[in-house]
C-alpha cells in the first residue's frame, strides 16, 4: 500500500474545511389579541369599563365599539351582565342616530327592538334579577370575588343577581315608540312605505304588553309606576281602534300575561331545584 504523497516544498498547506454555520434560532410566534369569545368574566368587566370611559370621545369608531359590545354580550355567562351589556348596545345605537329631523333607519330600529326583547326575556327567565340605576360608568360588582381575579381564566364569576345600568330599561322601549311615531310622521301616508312601516305597530304593542306583564309581576312601587308608563303607551296605540280589534288586543294581552307568569314560575322552580342539588353536592 502506497503512502500518501508529501506536499512539495514551498507549496501552501491545504485549507481546512470551515464548520457549517449554526442555523439561526426560530423567531418566536407572535400571538394576536385574545379573542373576545375567550374572555373570562373579569376581562369582560374590564373591557366594558374601558369602552364606557371612551364613550362620546372624538376619534372613536362607534361602529367598532358597538361590535365589541355585541361580542361581549355573547361571551358573558352572567344574566346580570348580559342585561347590562345589551342596555349599552341600545344606548350606543341611540347615540349613533340622534337626529331630530330624520327618523332612525328601520333596520336599526328593528335591531334595537330585538335587543330589547332579549333583555326582557332575560329578566323574565331570571325573576330574582334586580336592576339598579346608577350614575356614571358601569361598576364592577365587588361581590363577584372568585379565582378569576387571581388569574384563573377557567373559573367563573358568581352572579350577584344585580344589574347596574346608567338608565331605566323602560326608557329604551319608550324611545323605540317615539322613533316609530317619528318615522310615520315623516312618511307620506299614501305611500306603500307608510303601510309597510305601519305593520311594525303590532309587534311593538305586543312587546309593550309583555313588558307590562313583567312589571305587573313585580310588587315594588317603582315597578308599578313603570307598569303605568307602559300601560299609557299601549292606550295611545289602541284607544282609537274598532271594538273588535280592541277586544282582540286585550285578549292577547291576557294570554301573554298568563304565559309570562307560567314562565316565571317555571324559572323560579328550576332555580330552586338547582340550589337544592348544589347544597346536596356540598354535603
UniProtKB/TrEMBL annotation:
Keyword Repressor: no
Listed InterPro entries: EIF3C, EIF3C_N_dom
One Pfam match: eIF-3c_N
Region (Disordered): 1-36
Composition-biased stretches (Low complexity): 1-21
All residue ranges annotated as the Eukaryotic translation initiation factor 3 subunit C N-terminal domain in the record: 43-272
Organism field: Haptolina ericina
Molecular function via GO: RNA binding; translation initiation factor activity; translation initiation factor binding
Record-level GO cellular component terms: eukaryotic translation initiation factor 3 complex
Protein keywords: Cytoplasm, Initiation factor, Protein biosynthesis
Annotated signal peptide: none
Highest rank taxon of the organism: Eukaryota
Protein's name in the database: Eukaryotic translation initiation factor 3 subunit C N-terminal domain-containing protein
